[in-house]
Amino acid sequence: MIHWCMLIIEVVFIATNKARYTVSVDNELFKKIEDFRFDHRFQTRSEATAELIRLGLGTLNNGQDEQKKLQK
What we know:
Helix content is about 55%, strand content about 0%. The protein contains two helices and no strands.
């Protein structure tokens, strides 16, 4: 008796060379990210999350710059 098996290979082409990683968040933070995404009309959750990281890092950098000015 011969059994046939078909292998399906899925090839995913990634349109970017950007680094990727996974972040786990609780439900409350997830909802806030989704709200930000839709409020600012980002097409993907990834784009919205990257923008939130940029904004947070910018705020952090600005705060450090202000501290340096005060120390002088």
